[in-house]
Structures are given as C-alpha cells and as structure tokens.
Amino acid sequence: MRNLATLLFLGGLGFLLLVITGGLVFGDPPMLIGRGIQQAAPDQVGAANIVTAVVLGYRGLDTLGELSILFAAATAGGLVLGSTRSRNTRPAGFILRTGVDLLFPLLLVAGLYVVIHGHLTPGGGFQGGVILAAAFFLPLLARPQDVPDHTWLSVIEGLAGTAFIGIGLAALYQGEAFLTPMLDKGVLGELVSSGTLPLLYLAVGLKVGAELASLLVRLSGDDEVTS
Question: Which backbone phi and psi does 93 adopt, to 5 degrees?
Fold first, then answer.
C-alpha cells in the first residue's frame, strides 16, 4: 500500500511537470520580468551590472533582510563561541608568516576592487566583504600572539549598517521608495555612476567583512584544556 501511494504521487508529479513544461516553447524561457529589468535597468538605475540593479535598486529591502540575518548569525556564533574558547598563542612558521605578509595587501586590494566595482562587473559587497574578512583574518593565523583589539570591527559594522539604512531613509525623505537610487546616474559603465548604488555596496562590503572577520576571530580559538 505504501509503495502504491508513492507511485501515485510520483506519477501525479510527473504529469504535473509534463503539463507545465509542455506549454513552454523549447529554447525560449518566459523570462518576462527578467527581460523587462534588462531593458529598463540601464536607464532607471544606471548600473552596468544588472545584478546590482536588482539587489540594491529593485529589491534593496530584501538585501537589508539578508544583512540582518547575517548579523544575527554572526552574533549568535560569537556569543556561543566567546565564552567557551581561548586564543591560540602558538607562533606560526616562517612560511606562513611570509605568505601572509605577501597575501594581505593583495587580498585587501582585491576585496576593495570587487566592492567598489560591484555596479560595473560581477561581484559586489557580499563577495568583496568575504575577501576583506579573509584578508584581516590571515594575520591572526600567522601571529596569534599579537592580536590587536577588535573593537574597531564592531564600530565599522555599526557605521556601515547605519549608512545603509540612512541612504534608504534619505530616499524616503525625498518622497521615493526605500533605497531608491539617488544622485546623478552618470554615464553607464563609468566608475562614478549608478547614483548611490556604489555607496550602498561599500556599506554592504564593510559590514559583511567586519561581521565575518569577527566570527573568524572567534573560531580561531582553541578549546581550553586543563590538566
């Protein structure tokens, strides 16, 4: 009886998918909304990267929700790990220390490049923020005994989140929807273009980088062992 119910379910699901896909033209997916955004985004938003126009222009409120989820996850992870772990102070080897000294400026430049050019090329605040977090975490692996005070990470995270929301409120103040792109759109494809979208991505990159860097600092501790 159980196998019969499973077969009936699979048969019904297959029939449903067949009916849905049977009405579609092969090789021509009905991307009505996507096609409309591709046609309107360059003039409305001024971003050469259409993904940026969607993430920050057309669904910026959803992006704010994603940032809130990331903040909640990083905060919960820090609270759980912070009270049970202690810092590893064993010195790293020469190869790791030298490699970190070489990679740190490269990762820093790469992360900032991805964030700043997010409205022009694939990438943006989330991807560049991860690279920045890795850049600031590598020195901790190489020299765990020289860990500085990471209070500045919380300050950067708070200021970046405030800036993101502040830009959205400024749009509301001008009678537009929340996070509607403001300022001059500029020339499509140039670095200074897309209005406030590059500023929003910069805020996203700094916030994501600070949150992930703080979480990685927590994860870098060793379990405290007592003899």
Answer: -80, 170
**Helical residues (DSSP H) of 45-193, grouped into ranges:** 50-52, 60-82, 94-116, 125-142, 151-173
Q: What is the pLDDT of residues 42-100, one digit of tens each?
A: 888 888 888 888 888 888 888 989 888 888 888 888 777 765 455 556 667 888 888 88
What letter represents residue 119's amino acid? H
pTM given for the model: 0.77
Residues 6+ apart with CB under 8 A from 175: none
Of 49, 48, 34, 214, the residue nearest 122 (C-alpha): 49
The answer to whether the CB of 123 falls within 8 A of the CB of 202 is no
For 95-115, the pLDDT digits (tens) are: 888 888 899 999 999 999 999
CA distances from 83 to 43, 125, 223 (A): 51, 30, 11
